[in-house]
Amino acid sequence: MDMNKLMKKAQKMQAKMSEMQEELENKTYEATAGGGAVKALVNGKKEVLDLQIDEDVVDPEDVEMLEDLILAAVNEAMREATEEINDKMGQMTGGMNMPGMF
């Protein structure tokens, strides 16, 4: 096996993975809870970019419900981001197990 060819393939794969990772980090994911009463927007870096709350669900007597809606929307957006990142990187690596890489 030619080591130079192997190294070039590895470098090419690394460049593609870096490009894909950057693309995924810049992508946004939106999720809602409570029939759209709470919307969360996150990016592929798993940072919350925006949180919108419909004023109709703001009830001082039921803060716990609002907290639950916020958590549900944020967690769902994060789950969607994680799922897509894992899927794309899994396709790129051909299923190689590379824990902690992304």
Q: Helical proportion? A: 40-55%
* Strand ordering within the main sheet: 1-2-3
Order of helices and strands: HEEEH
Find the CATH topology of the domain at 23-87.
Ybab, Chain: A
Based on helices, strands and strand pairing, what is the structural class?
A: alpha+beta
- The CATH homologous superfamily name of the domain at 23-87 equals Nucleoid-associated protein YbaB-like domain
Report the strand count.
3
Number of helices in the DSSP assignment:
2
Q: What best-fitting shape do the alpha-carbon axes yield?
A: rod-shaped
CATH level 1 name of the domain at 23-87 = Alpha Beta
Whole-number mean pLDDT: 89
Taking the sheet with the most strands, its summary is: 3 strands, antiparallel
- Any idea what the CATH architecture of the domain at 23-87 is? 2-Layer Sandwich
Unreliable residue runs = none
Q: What percentage of amino acids are in beta strands?
A: 15-25%
